Amino acid sequence: MGEIIHEMISEKQITEKISQIASQINEDYRGKEIHLICILKGSVFFCCELAKRLEVPVTMDFMAVSSYGNGTEPSGRLSVTKDLDEPIDGRHCIIVEDIIDTGFTLSMTKKMLSARGPASLKLCTLLDKPERRKTKIEAEYTGFTIPDKFVAGYGLDYAQKYRNLPYIGEAEFVED
Ligand code: IMP
Ligand code: MG
């Protein structure tokens, strides 16, 4: 099996959307400091582009969690492979994620981080696949709602490939 990636959301569309989300966050957090929690690796591109457009003071930390192996189905288990470097108690945190699919990753991550006593904790996701949701979770900031397709690019991978694509594409799986 091989795969072909077909462009679904262009770089221009993504950039415009990130600017819109940033404006909304700038408005919502006026007078506050934001602590961005970037979920590695998929949300790195999104998180950096978002951070560059924020006008309130921003700090950033990185965390690697995963409920996926190398395939396209979730395992339903969360493993924290890299925890945050700094405490988050009393801070206004925004978790920045690439995509919400079943919702397991973010709901487990959010629960774990809530227990650390942040002043506030919101979710910001570039993509949302609501059709596949298995747990109740909604992001305060969502870039694009997409159908139940496996996508790659702009940070998202298929078997660790395609993260560097400047656009988001739909993966078509084909016989070799
Ligand atoms: P969830 O726990 O099912 O919501 O899965 C979220 C995680 O699965 C994301 O952070 C991605 O790393 C990965 N994921 C889900 N759907 C896709 C996809 O279409 N392409 C690439 N990664 C995906
Ligand atoms: Mg991810």
Please provide a written account of the structure:
The structure is a single chain. With 176 residues, the protein is α/β, with parallel strands linked by helices. It has one domain: 3-Layer(aba) Sandwich (Rossmann fold). The protein has helices at 11-28, 44-52, 104-114; strands at 2-9, 34-40, 58-68, 74-82, 92-100, 120-128, 141-145, 151-152, 168-174. The strands form two sheets. The protein has a six-stranded mixed beta sheet with strand order 4-3-2-5-6-7, with helices on both faces. Strands 1-9-8 form a three-stranded antiparallel beta sheet. Helix 3 (104-114) links the parallel strand 5 (92-100) and strand 6 (120-128). 30% of the residues are buried. It binds inosinic acid and magnesium ion (MG). Residues 39, 42, 98 line the site of magnesium ion (MG).
Number of spatially distinct domains: 1
The gyration radius over C-alpha positions equals 16 Å
Record the strand order, biggest sheet. Answer: 4-3-2-5-6-7
Order of helices and strands: EHEHEEEHEEEE
Q: Give the rounded overall mean pLDDT.
A: 94
Strand runs, count:
9
For this structure, the CATH topology is Rossmann fold
Distance between the termini: 5 Å
- The number of helical segments is 3
CATH architecture: 3-Layer(aba) Sandwich
Major sheet details: 6 strands, mixed
What percent of the residues sit in helical stretches (DSSP H or I)? 10-25%
Strand content: 35-45%
SSE class: alpha/beta
**Shape annotation:** globular
What ligands can be seen in this structure? inosinic acid, magnesium ion
